[in-house]
Fold this protein.
Amino acid sequence: MVPLTAREHAALDRLEERERPLRRGGALVREKDIGGEMFVLREGTMMSSVLLDDGSRQILRFLFPGDLLGMSSLAYGEAPETLTALTDCMVAPFDRAAIANVVAEHPRLAALIMVYNQIERAALTDRLAALGRTSAKARVASILLEMRNRQRMVDPQLGSSFALRLTQEEIGDATGLTAVHVNRMLRQLEEEGLIAREAGRMTFINERGLAREANYIDRYVGLDLSWLPPAQ
């Protein structure tokens, strides 16, 4: 997003000095846990979710390498969400003092963390609007685009074919649909010539049409960072 100086790189490296492996399906943090640790996701894919009163699960976000996890610990004593590994993962834990040092010594990095949080807020706003106002097919199409575009940020060479790494139940928990309904929407997207599926891989046949179907906005493009303070 922004070229970093050697000092800024070193400050971020200090956040990742320790490593902690997490196996697929493991919970890094559970909703209402007490703690102050935050994390950088170094490898793998994770999700954040909450349990609803009826026992169902709502997936809020999918998380990819480079994402900051558990940042609510800066404001709350209890975790508001559960963080679960969708694949084998590696995370780097750090505490509040490490973030305080970044804010004090590297104001531009602190500003970039604020930008990141605003991107996440906008993406969650899109998800909320989709749950209330768009069709089931649009919601599923949006998840497919989100997963590919976030993976492409990690691997810029990624094209129209990618490993989805989500079950239909997980897609359903993110979109407010049953797994059966998700399956029906995926088949419909295939029949309309928008996607193809084979051996666990998803391929976009008509990406422009898929984005149109989803009313999708990529919140990681079109950023205005001209206001950022200079590096120190």
Remarks:
- Residues 15 and 98 are 7 Å apart (CA to CA).
